Amino acid sequence: MDGHGRTLLLLQIFFCFFVFASTDETKQVKRVSQKEIEDCSQVQCPGPLTYYDDVGCTPVYKNKGDCCACKYNCDHLNARSRNKCYVRRNSYEFGERLRPEDKNPCNVGCFCKNGTNSGRFVCAIVDCYHGPIDTGCYMKRNISQCCPGPLTCPKNESEIPKCVVDGVTYKDGEFFIPKNEPRKRCTCREGYTGQNIKPFCITPSTTCSTDLYHSQDIAKKCIPIYYADQNPATNCSSSWRCQNANDTVIPNPSGSPSCGEDCPGKKRYDLQIR
Ligand SMILES: *[C@@H]1O[C@H](CO)[C@@H](O)[C@H](O)[C@H]1NC(C)=O
Ligand SMILES: *[C@@H]1O[C@H](CO)[C@@H](O)[C@H](O)[C@H]1NC(C)=O
Ligand SMILES: *[C@@H]1O[C@H](CO)[C@@H](O)[C@H](O)[C@H]1NC(C)=O
Ligand SMILES: *[C@@H]1O[C@H](CO)[C@@H](O)[C@H](O)[C@H]1NC(C)=O
Ligand SMILES: *[C@@H]1O[C@H](CO)[C@@H](O)[C@H](O)[C@H]1NC(C)=O
Question: What is the DSSP letter of 72?
Fold first, then answer.
């Protein structure tokens, strides 16, 4: 969604520029603009972006057209009631089932329930177990469904549909994330021509289902933490760190940090994994 927003903004900028540019340099202008669009989609912005996006924080940009937000506004999290459940900015009463617009294929049987510090979702545990797959056989896949299947055993290897994406060849049923559309989840299937649309791709409502599984961490103002080999911009947090009695709270002398400024006492914690 954000990627699209950026591209749109740049396109708008391009169109403005185009209107005011002299007509004899059209090709030049177009090439520069195309380069700009690609550059922005390639930019790796810092921060736990999947988390911000998952819980519906609003990016704040220093300058219009910037690729990266300088900070995110998550004030809505402070206004959450302990007697409701939330997915992004949508609220649920206790007992209410997860609505289709907030649902990803593997979020099955989820409903809102009263929890210890806040409302929380309880979902069914999905187990996509299938027996061993014979050589020459594979699972087809409908990306709108949680589990792969049905099992397919083509008579001839050359019958298997193939998809070329970002220079990589995928076979029917194989999963991929397009490089320039990191929020999409796709599967190779017959008829793919490079368009990352249904039935090949879906854009899940959230990347990590953070609000479904970590509402209590969010309510306790815990922070998502990541392993050293994870990219917080694209990966789901591996665990959460809550304030404990041994922590020293260092208030910011100037109130809330201004755009682009680091919090005082910012630290990188390296976890030992055993
Ligand atoms: C939810 O549970 C808490 C105690 O854990 C209780 O105080 C509160 O009244 C409950 N809320 C509702 C709406 O049942
Ligand atoms: C994929 O699954 C969805 C959801 O169950 C269904 O509506 C759709 O028809 C399926 N698509 C194909 C091409 O099988
Ligand atoms: C598989 O199909 C290709 C092309 O249709 C054909 O050339 C080849 O002989 C077939 N192989 C077998 C083992 O049937
Ligand atoms: C991080 O995300 C990438 C791309 O989505 C994925 O391939 C990789 O397995 C993830 N790594 C971890 C450690 O979760
Ligand atoms: C706080 O520090 C003490 C002493 O070092 C330690 O025993 C205790 O486990 C720590 N508590 C937490 C929550 O980290």
Answer: E
* Distance from C-alpha of 142 to C-alpha of 144, rounded to nearest angstrom: 5
Length of the chain as a residue count: 274
- For residue 211, being part of any structural domain is answered with no
Among 166, 227, 234, name the best residue to mutate to test ligand 4's pocket (greatest count of ligand atoms within 8 A of Cβ): 234
DSSP run (H or E) holding 49: helix 49-55
Q: pLDDT tens digits, residue range 74-123? A: 999 999 999 999 999 999 999 999 999 999 999 999 999 999 889 999 99
**C-alpha count within 13 angstroms, C-beta hemisphere, residue 39:** 10
Furthest C-alpha separation in the chain: 71
Last residue of a domain, one of 67, 102, 122: 122
Domain range for residue 66? Answer: 8-78+221-272
Ligand 1: centre distance to CA 211 (Å): 19
229 CB near ligand 4 (under 6 Å): yes
pTM given for the model = 0.78
